[in-house]
Amino acid sequence: MQNSGIIQRPNAGSVTLHWFGAALVFLALLAGMFAVYYSSGCCAADRRIAYLLHAYAGLSVLGLVVLRLMFRASYSWPPTAKSGKAGFGDMVAKVIHWALYGLMILIPLTGWTMASGMGCCWYVPGLPNVNMLSLGIHSTTPADVGTAYQVHVTLAWMIIGLISLHVAAALFHHVFLQNDVLQRMLPGRIPPKAAQNDGHGKATPAPMNKENA
Ligand code: HEM
Ligand code: HEM
Known about the structure:
Blueprint: H1 12-38, H2 45-74, H3 88-117, H4 142-177, H5 192-196
Bound molecules: protoporphyrin IX containing FE (HEM) (2 copies).
The site of one protoporphyrin IX containing FE has 26 residues, from helix 1, helix 2, helix 3 and helix 4.
C-alpha cells in the first residue's frame, strides 16, 4: 500500500471508542481475575461485586465494538505517514487488529452464555437470556456452561497475549521508529520528527496539513 506521506488522523469517533474500549477491556480483565483468583469465595460479597463489574464492563465492550465496527465501516483507517509498500509488520498488525475485534465479540458472548445458564453468583441483574440474540447459542445444561467457560477462559488468555503484542508494537513505533503511529491516536500536535520518519531512518516529505500545521 503506497501513501502520500501526509499525516491523517483516524476519525475522532473511532479514536475515542478505541480508548474507551481499551479501558473497558482492562477493567473486565482485572475484575474477572479478581473474582476468580483473589476474592473470598463463591457467593462472598467481594466476589459478587467484582463479578458484576466484570460482566457489565464486558457487556459494554460488546456494545462498544458494534458501534466501533460501524464507524470502521463508515470511515476507513488512514495509512500512516510511512513511505513505501506495506510490509510483513503491517500485515501482522492488521491480523492482530481484526483478531482483537473478533475476541471483543466472542469473549462477552461466551460470558453471556455462562451467565444465562447458571443462577447463583453468576446471575447478572437486567441481563436477558442469551437465546434472545437468536444466534443459535443455547445455554441450558451444565455441559453447555462448562464448554462456554473453557472457551471464555482460553479466549481471555488469547486477548491478553494479543494486547501485550499490540501495546509493545505501539511503543516500538513510538520509541524506536519514532513515527506517527501512536502520536496520531493521542490528542495534541504531532511533532515534525514523528510526522516525517518513515520507520526506516529515512526522511519522508510530510506536507503540512490542518493536523500538523
Ligand atoms: C471483554 C470482555 C470480557 C473479558 C476480557 C473477560 C475475561 C474473563 C477472565 C480473564 C476471567 C477469569 C478466567 C479464569 O478463570 O482464569 C473471566 C471469568 C468469567 N467471566 Fe468473563 N470476560 C469478559 C466478559 C464477560 C461477560 C460479558 C460475562 C457475563 C455476562 C462474563 C462472565 C464470566 C464468568 C461467569 C466468569 C467466571 C467467574 C467466576 O468464576 O467467578 N465475562 N472472564
Ligand atoms: C495502552 C493500550 C493501547 C495502546 C497504546 C494502543 C495503541 C494503538 C495504536 C497506536 C493504534 C493505531 C495503529 C495504526 O494506526 O496502525 C491502535 C489501533 C487499534 N487498537 Fe489499540 N492500543 C491499546 C489498547 C488496545 C486494546 C486493549 C484493544 C482491544 C482489545 C485495542 C484494539 C485496537 C484495534 C482493533 C486497533 C485497530 C483499529 C482499526 O484498524 O480499526 N487496543 N491501538
